[in-house]
Amino acid sequence: MTSATSTEQAIELELQSVSKSYGKNLAVKSITASIPQGKVSVIVGPSGCGKSTLLRIISGLDFPTQGSVTFNGAPVRGVPEGLAMVFQDYSRSLFPWMRVDRNIGFPLRHISADERRQRVQEAIDAVGLKGKEKLYPWQMSGGMQQRAAIARALASHPKLLLMDEPYASVDAQTRADLEDLLLDIHATLGVTVLVVTHDIDESIYLADHVIALSAPPSVVAETVEVDLPRPRNQISTKQDPRFVELRAHVTSLLRSH
Amino acid sequence: MRLLRDPLSQNKTIVLGVAGTLGVLAMWELLIRSGAVSKPGLPVPTRVMAQAAELLGNTVFLNQVFTTIGEWLLGLGVAAIAGILVGGLMGAFPAVFVAFEYPVEAFRTLPSIAVGPILVLLLGAGVAPIAITVALSSIWPILLNTLYGVRGTDPTAVATARTLGVRPLGLLMQIRLVSALPFAFTGVRVAASIGLIVTVSAELLIGSGQGIGGYILLASTNAGNLDGVYAATIIAGVLGVLINAAFALLDRTAFNWKKGLAQ
């Protein structure tokens, strides 16, 4: 299996021996990883391995106990510009007092109303929520709420899209649809994507490379390059012998560490 | 076969409710008129109703009602602003909470109406001591509801706002206070009812013959007009019901989105 040697790639995000402890409890132990620009990277690991902690540190919501995060060439201290986060819990992440269009326009509150309207519309079209602009989040299904959350993240034209278990609370069919939506958006906009998930199939289906974390205190078990062709397809990609092989490999990585 | 707990149709509900109320009033009337209960000063429903109808057509009395509404609104307004401000700060900042926790607990248990006479001594009789008494009694549900509303703001909503570049002051004003508003408004609703009761009581105790309370006081002492006392009391009660209905309507229209708050 090939290890990541993405030297020829421009690096969007760099983690340097990042560790995080809460009191005596070491959640994340010395994680070093590079997220290449314009690619889909997926961090996969067992529950409680500190994946969400890691995303909170990358997004500047939390600070590492040791080590550093560099985004876009600058060290992360507080929430950086050019980064958008999609949370697992869409129903809590969308503001319930705002209709869908205002929720999506919220990151653009400092630009002119005309430009804002246009960019909100673009984001709504990109995620297929046309006609739902005037609904409140709680008037929509879970899948549509997560689409709205993704649209809000896209509206700010981020360089880096972070997603924390984005599909963990939706049904299987919606999940497949949203995975394909993400791949479409990535193919169209070329944004750098970093997804955190516990689902091995999902990680391989989405990723250009998979960063497999061990059980806590977590370290990077291995970075696995996913050489499956794009565009990917829920049926044929998942039947590809290479997919099956990669899945077996990542599964063994999560088991053995 | 009909189930025992089949829900009643809306028409039936109305008919039964009206019939029950009228029935109780009619029995009451009958008890007094027949002499079965004879104690001077008991209200006779038809006479009280007639007196109430007369009062509602009387501009002098209607002015008293508006005086009461004015004092109540002033007190409630002050309570709402102060309660949301202090409650919001207490909910957002643990240091403010710790600093104000004991003063709030101490003042909260104080019977505000007992402060009335002191306020009259300090400020002189008039609208001010009554409005302040009302504010002192109605601030607590607003303050406490806002406090717990702000404190209970969904951490995911706050984290989301932070990733969208909202700074600490914005987090308080745009996220935490806004998401606490339905709770604060419930506090205002509760305070509105308490405030009206306190307004009329304060008019009785420390007023200068103004407002509904002032009318009740004059009717009971000077003229011994007991029907007037009963009628004005009922009108004050109906006013409370109307105010509550108006606030409920406002709640449904302005804060309908609260269905979306994760519980």
UniProtKB/TrEMBL annotation, chain A:
GO molecular-function term, one example from the UniProt record: ATP hydrolysis activity
Residue ranges occupied by any ABC transporter domain in the UniProt entry: 13-240
Name of the protein: ABC transporter ATP-binding protein
Pfam families xrefs: ABC_tran
Keyword hit for Nucleotide-binding: yes
Keyword Transport tagged: yes
Transmembrane segments: none
PANTHER family given in the database record: ALIPHATIC SULFONATES IMPORT ATP-BINDING PROTEIN SSUB (PTHR42788:SF13), TAURINE IMPORT ATP-BINDING PROTEIN-RELATED (PTHR42788)
TrEMBL record, chain B:
Protein origin, superkingdom: Bacteria
InterPro entries, sorted: MetI-like (IPR000515), MetI-like_sf (IPR035906)
Segments crossing the lipid bilayer: 12-32, 72-100, 112-144, 164-185, 192-217, 229-250
Entry's Gene Ontology BP terms: transmembrane transport
UniProtKB keywords: Cell membrane, Membrane, Transmembrane, Transmembrane helix, Transport
Subcellular localization, as worded in the UniProt entry: Cell membrane
Membrane topology listed for this record: Multi-pass membrane protein
Main localisation: membrane
Keyword match Iron: no
Span of domain ABC transmembrane type-1: 65-251
Keyword presence, Magnesium: no
GO cellular component, one term: plasma membrane
Family named by the database record: Belongs to the binding-protein-dependent transport system permease family.
The protein's name: ABC transporter permease
Species, as recorded: Paenarthrobacter nitroguajacolicus
